[in-house]
Design a protein that fits this description.
heterodimer, A: about 120 residues, mainly beta, globular, B: about 120 residues, five-stranded antiparallel β-sheet, about 0% helix
């Protein structure tokens, strides 16, 4: 079974630009979560999508948004990029068995975004 | 406020010996805990998890212990191998809380080095 895939793997943008990252979950997984990893803050939860709906959201500004398609693929968008947005953006998928169920999340390799 | 803490940033162990990685949490709502391993330029790989209804879970060389009263968990790797050298993240979630069960809160990671 193929794992979580993310595209692109590397991206360089300049301040003020916007960027879209893509994630394809493991086949059969309906939940997709996004995380930002930086050296200072570690792994921080951005948001989670399930059945094309945002189900959970972390503490990030509105410049960070996402969506999920009917095939469970997800995209995240960052508008008006800032230097501090430079990070590794990780996507994770899970079966999402519901409240009370185990929620092992399986991560993709990430997209390394550099903002100049 | 860091809800999941991995206070030791690094650990060095001789091959064949036991590696013990510690993690503390503060949020009483957390009831499901996971350990991930991460190599550079890759996404985190799921290792092992434990529900709060258990105090121990074992999978091959990896054992996770949970002490709910102390809000502490630890990952034991026995015997340690050079290939175990990586960054290890502890993560927690509140799986019985609707709207929050899909969010993982991560510690900042511990870099494990296993010396041949």
């Amino acid at each position: 079974k193929a794992g979580v895939t993310q595209t692109p793997r590397y991206l360089i943008k300049t301040r003020g630009q916007q960027v879209t990252l893509s994630c394809s979950p493991i086949s059969g997984h309906r939940s997709v979560s996004w995380y930002q990893q930086t050296p200072g803050q570690g792994l921080q939860f951005l948001f989670e999508y399930f059945s094309e709906t945002q189900r959970n959201k972390g503490n990030f500004p509105g410049r960070f948004s996402g969506r999920q398609f009917s095939n469970s693929r997800s995209e995240m968008n960052v508008s008006t990029l800032e230097l501090g947005d430079s990070a590794l953006y990780l996507c994770a998928s899970s079966l999402a068995v519901g409240v009370g169920g185990s929620n092992e999340q399986f991560f993709g390799p990430g997209t390394r975004l550099t903002v100049l | 406020d860091q809800q999941v803490k991995q206070n030791s940033p690094s650990l060095s162990v001789q091959e064949g010996r036991i590696s013990i990685l510690n993690c503390d949490y503060t949020n009483s709502m957390f009831d499901y805990f996971l350990w991930y391993k991460k190599y550079p330029a890759e996404g985190p790989t799921f290792l092992i998890s434990i529900s709060s209804i258990k105090d121990k879970n074992e999978d091959g060389r990896f054992t996770v212990f949970l002490n709910k009263s102390a809000k502490h968990l630890s990952l034991h790797i026995v015997p340690s191998q050079p290939g175990d050298s990586a960054v290890y993240f502890c993560a927690a979630s509140a799986i019985r809380v609707a709207g929050a069960n899909s969010k993982l809160t991560f510690g900042k990671g511990i870099t494990l080095s296993v010396r041949p």
